[in-house]
Amino acid sequence: MTHKVKKSILISVGVLFSFVFLVVLFVSPITKFLVEKYDTKFIGREIKMDWAYVNPFTGYIYFSKVRISELDADSSFISIDNLMANFALWKLFKGTYEINEITLNRPKANIIQNKKALNFDDLIKLFQPKSHTSKRKSPIHFNVLNIQINNGEFHYYEQHIQIHYFIKNVNITSSGKWWNKDSLEATFSFTAGIGSGNAKGDCSINLENLNYRLHASIAKYDLDFVQQYLKDISNYGSFRANLDAEIKARGNFKDQENISARGQLSFNDFHFGKNPKEDYASFDKLILAINELSPKHHKYLFDSIAITHPFFLYERYDKLDNVQTMFGKKGSKITEAAADKTEFNLVIEIARYVKVLAKNFFRSNYKINRLVVYKGDLRFNDYSTSEKFAIGLSPINAFADSIDKNHKRVSVVLVSGIKPFGNGSVTLSINPKDSSDFELEYQFEKLPATLFNPYLISYTSFPLDRGTLELKGKWTVRNGEINSNNHLTVIDPRISSRLLNKGTQWIPMRVIMALVRERGNVIDYEIPITGNLTKPNFHLRDVIFDVATNIFVKPATTPYRIQVRNIEKEIEKSLAFNWEMITSKMNSNQLHFLQRLAEFLKDNPDASLSITPQNYTLKEKEYLLLYEAKKKYYRSKIATNTKTYTETDSNMVAKMSIKDPQFVNYLNHQIKDSLLFTIQDKCAGFVSVVELDQYYAQLQETRKKAFLSVFSSIGVSSQINFMSGKTVIPYNGFSFYQIDYTSEFPESLLKAYRELNVLNNASPRKKFKWIRKKNQHTPFINNKIKKAVPTN
Predict the structure, then answer these.
(1) Which of 479, 503, 569, 752 is most buried, most CB within 10 Å of its CB?
(2) Cβ-count burial of 272 within 10 angstroms (0-12 exposed, 13-18 middle, 19+ buried)?
(3) Which helix or strand (DSSP H or E) is residue 71 part of?
C-alpha cells in the first residue's frame, strides 16, 4: 500500500509539473500570438515582438524587442529592447490590480506634433474614462509600482515648423502610483541628444490638483535646439548657448503665477545673430541667483544678477534695421506666429511665460542685492548715410548694490569708454517705488567732432577736420516733472572743404558756424529742459542769445580769430601732413610747406625728420571700395564706348551718389544675396579683396613718392627717415603723415607755438582753457615741442 501511495503521489506530482511546464511552454507563444492578432482591434496600432515569456503562476512577463507602430502607419511609435513586469496575482482575489514592478530597457519613442495634434492623441482618448449617467461605481483599485526606465531615447518632431530634438540616456525611477494616492514621485537623468549637456533631479506631481515639486540640476546643457523655433519667427538667424542650473521649485500646472522657486540659473556662451560668425547680441555669462521668486505672493528676491561681456549691435540700413530685417517690419514675423493659436513655438511660449512672471515686478516686494554689468560692448552702425557712421560704447561697466523696494533711493553707476575716442559716465538715483522720481547725472567727453562727419556730409556737404565735443547734464525729476540743465561744448570746430556729391544736401555751413561759434572758436550752449516726461519743453534762450551776440560782437574780433586760425594751421601742418580721402594730390599750400621744410633741412644738415604714415585704413578702404564699384558700373553702363578712363570720368564717378537708384539696381543684379543689406556689403561682393588691397597699396605708394619727391628735388632725401605705416583711427578723421623732428625744430613752428600759448590766455579763449586742455586729443602736439616751448 505504501508503495502504491508513493507511486500515485509521484505520478500526480509529475502530471502537475508537466501541466505547469506545458502551460508555461504554450502560454508564452499564445500570448505573443494573441497580442499581435488583436492589437489593432483594441488599440488601433500594430504590435510586434521577437518573443515573449509569460509565467501565469508567478505573474512575471518578459517581452523582447517590442515595437508599437504609429496609428495607421508602419513607422515606429515606440520600440523597447525588453520589457519586464511582475503582477501581484494574489491581490486579484482582493479586487486589486497591481503591477508591483515594471522595467523598460532601452525604450525609444517618437513624439510627433502637427500644430496642436499629437501622435498619441488616440491613446489618450482610448484610455480616458467613459462618462456615465448611471450611479457612480466604486473606483478600480489599480497600482503601478516600482517603475524603471533604463537608457531611453525620446525624439520630438514638430511637422508644421520642422522641429526635431531628442534626449538620450534617459533613466527614470519611480516608486509608482497607488490607486488611493494622488501623488507620483520620480527621479530622472538624461543627456542632450543634439549637442552636449546633462540634467538630473527629482520631482513629484499631484495628479488630482496638478501641484508639482521639482529639484533639477543642469550642467552645460546645449540650447542650440532653440534655433529651430527661430526659423518660424525670423527670416534668417543663428543661435547658440548652454545652460547651468540648480533649481528648486513648487507650483501648479494650471496657474502660471503659482510658482515658488529658488536657486541659480547661468546662461553661458550666448550668441544670436546673422550667422555663426556675425553676432547681433551675445554674452559670456548671465547669472541669476534667486533667493525667492514667487509672483503669486509678489516676491522677487534676487541675491545677484550679473552679466559678463554683453554685446549688442544695432544697424540702420536704407530701408529697415538689422532687427526688422530678421523679424520682419515692426516684428511682423513674430506677430504672425504668435497670432496662430494652433501653433506651438517654444520661444514665444517662453516669452509669454516670462511676461507673466514679470508683469507685477514693480508692484511687488523686489530686491536685488547686487547688479553688475561687466565689460559690455554696445555698437551702432548707420549705413543710411552717404558713408558708414560707427560708434560704440566699450567697455561698459555698471554697478548697483542693494536694489530694494524698501529703500528710499537706489543708485546705479555706469561708466564706459567710447569707440573710437572718448568716455562717458551716467549716475542714476531712483525711487524704487516710483520710476518717475529720479536724479540723473551724465557726462560724455573727448568725443571727436569729426566722428559725426557722415551725417554732416550727407546733410550739409561739409565735413569737419577738427573739434572736440563734450556733453554733460543733470536732471531732477519729481512725479514726472523735469528740471534739468544740459551743457554742450564743442572745442575748436573747423569746417573743411565742401565735398561735391550728388547724394548729399547743401547747407551754407560756413555762415552757420559763424553764427553759432563764439569768439574763442567754441560752441558753448546750455539747454534747460522742463515740462514732464511725456511732453518735455526745450529752452533755447541761450542758443538764441549767443547767436545774436555773435552777429553784433563777433565781427570786432575777426582779426584775432584769423590770427589764431593761422597759427593753429602752422603748428598742425608742421607736425602732420594731412591727406584727403583716397587721393595723393597735394594742394599749393601743402607743396609750399614741404618746400619750406626741405629748405630747413638744407640749411640744417644735422637735422632730420622721421615720417610715420598714420593710415585711416578702415575709412579709406570704404571710400576706395565704393569708388571702384561705381567705376565698374560707370564703365559698363555709361561710358561703354570709350576705352580710356579720363580725369573727367573719375570726377563724375567720385560725385556719383552711392544711393543712385540705377547704381543700386546694377549692384542688385550683380550680387544676388538677400542677406546683404548695405551698399558696402554689396560692393564688397563686387570688388574683390585682392583688388581692393592692390588699389590701397598703390595709393600708399603714390603718396609716398609724391611726398618724397619734394625733398629729392632739393637734395635732402637722405635726411628723411620714412617709417612703416600704422593703421589707426585718426582723431581728425583723415590719414596723415606724422612728422617728428629728431633734433631741433624750425623756428616758425616754435614761434607759432609760443604765440598760441599767448592767445590761449587772452580773454576770448581763456574761459575755455581748462576744457581745451582736458579734451586735447591730438598726436600733433608731442612732448618734445611741449618741452621746447613750456606753456604758461
Answers:
(1) 752
(2) buried
(3) none
